[in-house]
Amino acid sequence: MVAKVIDGKEIAKKKRQEIASEVRALKEENIFPGLAVVLVGNNHASKTYVNNKEKACREAGIESFLIALPEEVSQEELLREIAELNKREDVHGILVQLPLPDHIEEKKVIEAISPEKDVDGFHPLNIGRMMTGQDSFLPCTPYGVMVMLEETGIEVSGKHVVIVGRSNIVGKPAGQLFLNKNATVTYCHSRTKDLEYHTKQADIVVAALGKPNFIRSNHIKEGATVIDVGINRDEHEKLCGDVHPEVAEKAAYLTPVPGGVGPMTITMLLFNTLKAARQSKALSKA
Ligand SMILES: NC(=O)C1=CN([C@@H]2O[C@H](COP(=O)(O)OP(=O)(O)OC[C@H]3O[C@@H](n4cnc5c(N)ncnc54)[C@H](OP(=O)(O)O)[C@@H]3O)[C@@H](O)[C@H]2O)C=CC1
Ligand SMILES: Nc1nc(=O)c2c([nH]1)NC[C@@H]1CN(c3ccc(C(=O)N[C@@H](CCC(=O)O)C(=O)O)cc3)C=[N+]21
């Protein structure tokens, strides 16, 4: 079998046009959606992502505010900045780019973000709401994966989904969203014994382990759907995923890197910012 490539860029483009048109409608009502991105330090990759986010905001008509802080910024100072952003009426969404330097406690920072502005969906309140199936901001990368499958017409209900990786930002919430859509979910991680045994059973494999080209043909059942979340550099510094290209010969569907999950992540960030702006209107009327 030769896999059909799921074009994340194309799906993202379509979704972003819909978002842009809804942003225009909201502006008619004098609400101008705004996203604040907080970047600590000078990490090159983080800067690239932040630039991508700013560009995507601009194209969707969403205002973006970059708060760039030095690597040495104290946790206190960062928390003060977040408190300011929580108060600003022109800021509907707040994203603190992760990872943060070691001297800052990530959990404290995430909890400082007002849940109504937590467009990453990382605040414990939003995570709890997601787990109990209430309306919430869904974490952008897993949410993007679900939208990609939906747009491609791939059924999730009743399927066996194996997630490789259990981080708070990708693996864990991805499993939860699949469970919410009635999939049977298995989580694998670095202590999993016989990874291949598990992934080989999967109708859908989500690779989010952060190891270049790690998932090979032997891990995959013929005709499975393979979602490659990884963003890595290979030994030639070329961008690559967690899934080896040879998997294309065995899978039915495969997401590319670049041009797969990445553009969808940014799209769902725009979507969440639009949602936050809309809800701010409802709140101010109440
Ligand atoms: N496309 C996008 O939009 C995004 C892409 N990414 C990319 O996705 C990848 C994962 O990111 P993130 O979740 O933040 O990464 P983390 O490093 O936080 O987590 C990696 C997870 O993979 C597990 N793991 C590591 N090695 C193995 C192994 N050999 N076998 C099985 N499991 C393993 C770890 O297990 P354990 O818990 O036991 O340590 C951990 O749970 C990265 O490449 C990252 O760049 C991330 C965010 C967004
Ligand atoms: N608070 C927070 N929220 C995040 O959502 C978050 C984060 N921190 N830290 C880092 C990870 C990573 N991440 C990506 C977003 C877009 C692409 C992306 O657009 N990728 C493109 C191009 C990548 C490139 O050219 O480098 C693609 O895959 O086609 C990748 C990775 C969001 N993350």
Give the percentage of residues in beta strands. 15-25%
Small molecules held by this entry = NADPH dihydro-nicotinamide-adenine-dinucleotide phosphate, 5,10-Methenyltetrahydrofolate
Question: What value does the average pLDDT take?
Answer: 97
Mind telling me the CATH class of the largest domain?
A: Alpha Beta
Query: Helical region count?
Result: 9
What string, H for helix and E for strand, traces the elements in order? EHEHEHEHHHEHEHEEEEEH
Strands, count: 11
- The CATH homologous superfamily of the largest domain is named NAD(P)-binding Rossmann-like Domain
Please list the strands of the largest sheet in the order they lie side by side.
1-11-8-7-5-6
Poorly predicted runs = none
Instruction: Give the CA-based shape.
Output: globular
Query: Helix content range of the residues, please?
Result: 40-55%
C-alpha Rg (nearest Å): 19 Å
How many structural domains? 2
- The name of the CATH architecture of the largest domain is 3-Layer(aba) Sandwich
The major beta sheet can be summarized as: 6 strands, parallel
Characterise the protein shown here.
The protein is an alpha/beta fold. The chain has 2 domains: 30-114, Rossmann fold (3-Layer(aba) Sandwich), CATH 3.40.50; 140-262, NAD(P)-binding Rossmann-like Domain (Rossmann fold, 3-Layer(aba) Sandwich). The protein is 42% helix and 15% strand. It is built from 9 helices and 11 strands. It has helices spanning 8-28, 44-60, 75-87, 106-112, 124-131, 140-152, 171-180, 195-199, 261-285, and strands at residues 4-5, 34-40, 63-69, 93-96, 160-164, 184-188, 204-207, 225-228, 232-233, 239-240, 253-254. The strands form 3 sheets. The chain has a 6-stranded parallel sheet. Strands 3-2-4 form a 3-stranded parallel sheet, sandwiched between helices. The longest helix has 25 residues, at 261-285. The protein is globular and about 50 Å long. The chain starts with a strand and ends with a helix. InterPro entries: Aminoacid_DH-like_N_sf (IPR046346), NAD(P)-bd_dom_sf (IPR036291), THF_DH/CycHdrlase (IPR000672), THF_DH/CycHdrlase_cat_dom (IPR020630), THF_DH/CycHdrlase_CS (IPR020867), THF_DH/CycHdrlase_NAD-bd_dom (IPR020631). Residues 139-280 form the Tetrahydrofolate dehydrogenase/cyclohydrolase NAD(P)-binding domain. NADP(+) binds at residues 165-167, 231. Residues 6-120 form the Tetrahydrofolate dehydrogenase/cyclohydrolase catalytic domain. This is Bifunctional protein FolD.
